[in-house]
């Protein structure tokens, strides 16, 4: 099942997404977090139906949810970054207001940054509260999987304010408003092994990243377990699992207004967004 959020007629709704249409299942649930905790309830609900062109996609999470991101979680990406493999998961946070949905613009101010970069990632979405869960049990608390493009302002992220060359500004570089695409929806109960998926990123149709999730240093289950040892995870929380090699900064490439960016993950689909300059 593909469950997500959309807007139509000035209202935010919960939907089950199929190839040609979206079924409004909002009345079945108290909230989107509730939908993630029991998505199967919507399977037989006969709600209003919309063509995909009639709706706007919203991020498939909640405004109260946390967005955890794993850095340097692919061996080759760590190597292209010139950094060693982290001894434990290396994490940073994004804000819910950083997120945009499918087909929504990646909107940034050129007065703030002029080095925007893509990072295609598999993300898991929590469906059940969990704290101190084992790696063996961790995936039982995952509602499903989606795609996240960890768009980064490299000139902000890598501009060192201190003499220590290892200083990285994760917040400024990663959490600007309306710059992180996520979606199109959460795929529930269809992906048996998140460590056996292909992931690719394309800019204007040219493939820039192409790898398999089996190359993660820390698996989805290990990330869920580790983060749950630090804080209680709640339904709707997102864990982005890191990006493969091939990001733009190490190829002297940055995104410009008008560039089309796609991230495709096997078993989920394609997340597509266009870069725009904010007014």
Q: Helix proportion of residues, in percent?
A: 10-25%
Give the SSE string. EEEHEEEHEEEEEEEHHEEEHEEE
Radius of gyration: 18 Å
Shape: globular
Number of helices: 5
Distance, first to last CA: 38 Å
What would you say this structure looks like, in words?
The structure is a single chain. With 279 residues, this protein is mainly beta. Helix content is 11%, strand content 35%. It has helices spanning 32-37, 75-80, 154-157, 170-174, 220-230, and strands at 2-8, 11-17, 21-24, 49-51, 56-58, 67-71, 90-94, 99-100, 106-108, 116-117, 120-126, 142-149, 152-153, 180-188, 198-203, 206-212, 238-240, 260-265, 269-277. The strands form three sheets. Strands 1, 2, 3, 4, 5, 6, 7, 8, 11, 12, 14 and 17 form a twelve-stranded mixed beta sheet that branches. A hairpin with a 3-residue loop joins strand 18 (260-265) and strand 19. The longest helix is centred in the C-terminal third of the chain and has 11 residues, at 220-230. It is globular and about 50 Å long. The N and C termini lie far apart (38 Å). The model has no long low-confidence stretch (mean pLDDT 94).
């Amino acid at each position: 099942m593909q469950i997500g959020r959309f807007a139509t007629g000035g209202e935010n709704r919960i939907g089950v997404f199929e190839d040609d249409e979206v079924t409004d299942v909002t009345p079945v649930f108290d909230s989107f977090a509730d939908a993630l905790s029991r998505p199967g309830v919507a399977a037989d609900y006969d709600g209003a139906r919309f063509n995909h062109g009639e709706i706007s996609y919203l991020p498939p999470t909640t405004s109260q949810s946390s967005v955890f991101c794993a850095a340097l979680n692919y061996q080759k990406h760590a190597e292209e970054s010139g950094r060693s493999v982290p001894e434990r998961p290396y994490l940073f946070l994004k804000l819910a207001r950083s997120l945009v949905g499918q087909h929504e613009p990646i909107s940034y101010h050129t007065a703030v940054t002029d080095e925007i970069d893509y990072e295609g990632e598999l993300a898991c979405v929590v469906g059940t509260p969990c704290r101190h869960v084992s790696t063996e049990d961790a995936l039982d608390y995952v509602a499903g999987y989606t795609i996240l493009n960890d768009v980064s302002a490299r000139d902000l992220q890598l501009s060192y304010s201190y003499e220590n060359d290892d200083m990285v500004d994760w917040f400024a570089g990663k959490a600007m408003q309306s710059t992180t695409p996520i979606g199109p929806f959460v795929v529930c109960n269809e992906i048996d092994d998140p460590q056996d998926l292909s992931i690719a990123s394309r800019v204007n149709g040219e493939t820039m990243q192409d790898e398999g999730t089996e190359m993660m240093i820390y698996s989805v289950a290990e990330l869920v377990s580790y983060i749950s040892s630090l804080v209680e995870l709640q339904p709707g929380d997102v864990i982005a699992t890191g990006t493969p090699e091939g990001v733009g900064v190490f190829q002297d490439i940055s995104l410009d207004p008008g560039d089309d960016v796609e991230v495709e993950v096997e078993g989920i689909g394609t997340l597509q967004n266009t870069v725009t300059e904010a007014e």
